[in-house]
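User: Predict the complex.
Assistant: Input components as received:
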Amino acid sequence: MDTSKEKILIIGAGLCGSLLALRLAQRGYQIELREERSDLRKTDISAGKSINLAFSDRGIKALKLAGVVDKVFPLCIPMNGRMIHSIEGETFLSSYSGRPGEYINSVSRGELNALLLDEVEKFENVNIVFNSPCTGIELEQNKATFKVDDTIEGFHANVIFGADGVGSVLRKEFFNQREMLFSYSQDFLAHGYKELTIPALDTGGFRTEKKALHIWPRGKYMLIALPNLDGSFTVTLFLEHSGAKYSFEELNSKEKVVSFFREQFADALELMPNLVDDYFENPVGNLGTIKCRPWVYKGKSLLIGDAAHAVVPFYGQGMNASFEDVYVLDGYIEKYEGDWDKVFTAYENERKKDADAIGDLAVENFYEMRDHVANPDFKKKRQIEMELETSFDYYSKYSLVTFREDISYSEAKKKGNYQDKVLLELIVNSEIEKLDLATIFNKIKHDA
Amino acid sequence: MDTSKEKILIIGAGLCGSLLALRLAQRGYQIELREERSDLRKTDISAGKSINLAFSDRGIKALKLAGVVDKVFPLCIPMNGRMIHSIEGETFLSSYSGRPGEYINSVSRGELNALLLDEVEKFENVNIVFNSPCTGIELEQNKATFKVDDTIEGFHANVIFGADGVGSVLRKEFFNQREMLFSYSQDFLAHGYKELTIPALDTGGFRTEKKALHIWPRGKYMLIALPNLDGSFTVTLFLEHSGAKYSFEELNSKEKVVSFFREQFADALELMPNLVDDYFENPVGNLGTIKCRPWVYKGKSLLIGDAAHAVVPFYGQGMNASFEDVYVLDGYIEKYEGDWDKVFTAYENERKKDADAIGDLAVENFYEMRDHVANPDFKKKRQIEMELETSFDYYSKYSLVTFREDISYSEAKKKGNYQDKVLLELIVNSEIEKLDLATIFNKIKHDA
């Protein structure tokens, strides 16, 4: 079919919207890409909100499809495992996998987004408009209105994609459409987050191990740090909003913040000369999971990425899931091109259960990172899994989710939870010592 | 404390808001009761929407507390069980309990609401305003605005109750308040409902058994009927909205409707001379479950009844749950009067899990009513449970939910599901025949 005749509107030029625009431009569609914020390549708008992300195999698969992955790798810092910092300041590295070559990458959200926009702009069949918030959508007519300067303009498209993130305007239209029977849930953790910094050394070097995701797990609260190319680390503090001895509400003075860090994160405090300024300048973010259904309105519009399934950041999969959305969608466009109704229905049928799965996995991993990574049984389990991954065709739950882009999130969840359950039972019941590795491998194998 | 000094605003004069107003008026508070619709005692506004309801022990407990239950019983028609109608037109009665005196009551929503409003009006410390929709609430200031004729007026209160049902304005304010971390879910069944009628005989008599809740279970669809005092039955058809062989979308002509009823509900069709008119005049309703949290804003406002927890109608507990809300709340007012923050927090802590439980139970019972009531294993189970209830201190799940107002919904759910699981296993594995009743009773006893 002649795709150049079809006008596609994509709302949101973030990571998901940009990759989607790129892929559909490659397929020859006429693309209108609208973004409410200004062009991030011209102004710095990150301002203390998740400025680096973990980029891994599902995301790589999607960027490969769009032919841009080789340009992304130079922006990445490989992280081979979790560097756990105990309260006494001791550290140990817990590898992400027992196999070499299985690692995740720290990448700057802004740089990656800029790269995708640069690629999109190379296509003549794409029109990008920044500073143009969507003010409403008429679902039946496939018409959206946008603010541009002080006027409102309408835009009609054959198909509309809502890639407009957590606060999606398209999702709100679905929500308000009684006839859609729109099932929707939003769930917040009692914890919020705040971004802080470990600055680079004056020489440009890193103040602590570069090739790791650092974690200070403390039960009720947690600090993490991911490396940036410039030698700095972006640090995130996870803490209850209120109602606890230590909470964002309670930590309201310089003295309280410093004393909290001295008590809980002494080794990190030494690396954070700007802690107090960062703490009081940066906002507290919420941690929410959004699930909804349907994602589709009659083959006319589709929710994609965070707009369809916002997840908490604890599996490092938010961006990867959104990129994989584009990959899965592209497969159905290949199959049913010309029939958006079929494309969207098939996409939702496959993808909904996987989006639900990664949403659940991310919440579960919050508790794992916060509580378990420093727990002896958990350490024992990681050690055995590492040996299994080295010697057998075994993948831990983390590896299944992160490195097995050929397996869906929902399968990875099912298989991974089964393995975890059996393995932890063997450890807790002290049976593990009596078994050789091959026996353990056979015991925990999950035959789907 | 001197409660007469405290101004209480209740939004919504439906069943829950009216009972709440009555109880708080009895406690001496200054009550402002606002209702968006007109006074149902002066105009008929039911128009084909759930005009009779099942009134049972939890509701009775709450109306007893308010001292009005004796005025309600004359409005009730006891229903001793489910009268199941097979596709061949055969009927059998499945009692709700093996104990005499355990039955549910069919009552007109309008008449019960009118009675409660009459009782509320007897109090000088209550001001009721009809035709006054709430247009917004400032949570921090505890100020609500209402439309009255063509003007907007503000009302300030010490405490605001949102008893304004599924479309609650207070709940929408909570939803839009980012700082509240408002967790929310709405879930719709693929089925909708439409109300129909079996009219009274010209003599005023009933065309079929009066003292039963009639069910025509057909797997994918279901018809039910509840008796009214005037000899008629209110009939409800549950059917998928669209996408099935028989759906509200498909049944769009007189011929199709009549032929569907002739095929599936032949004995009902004979009793429904106005079927076609009813079908095309009455709207299709949605069946949704709403859960949310928190219900409370800082001891200033509280969601109650359907506004906090809308449930599908399949356990006949929607009204009873809302009445029980008032009962539970009243207990904490008694305990902590003067400290609304404590009252609301304690109330939510106790009640949230029970509201979740009845929401889940109601959805589960949809599948039970639709599919299982005519199934041989299910019939066998009901028969054994009937015998157990006759001879032992045993309560089926249905009885625990419906007749044990001293047990919370969440406990009833846990205990009931355990019993059902064990009993059904004994039946499916054909072990049940080898056991005497006392042994069965001991096997399925759930010690919480």
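The domain at 3-48+108-185+288-366 of chain A is CATH 3.50.50.60 (FAD/NAD(P)-binding domain).
Let me know if you want any component modeled separately.
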